[in-house]
Amino acid sequence: xxxxxxxFNKDELLTSQSSINIALIAIRKNIKKYDKEVKRPCxxxxxxxxxxxxxxxxxxxxxxxxxxxxEKISIAKTEELYLELELKIIEKKIETL
Length: 97
Fold this sequence. Notes:
Layout: H1 10-39, H2 51-66, H3 69-96
Helix pairs in contact: 1-3
């Protein structure tokens, strides 16, 4: 999957590592933004002591299912996972050079 890094020298690996770090930061910001959009209208429920927490979780889960935000969050998290894996591979290649 990441065979393209086999022929890279150390400078190319470092530049690709920095670009992947920038992409990871952008994806993490998007994930936070989507989470805030899902949870924003549900905070009023937390006024109710114990029952409010369960009601809040239920409302957030339903908002993730009914709106496209849940799908956007899952897509962003899989992209984040692949970029982190790619970053780990680049770091191992840099250590071996």
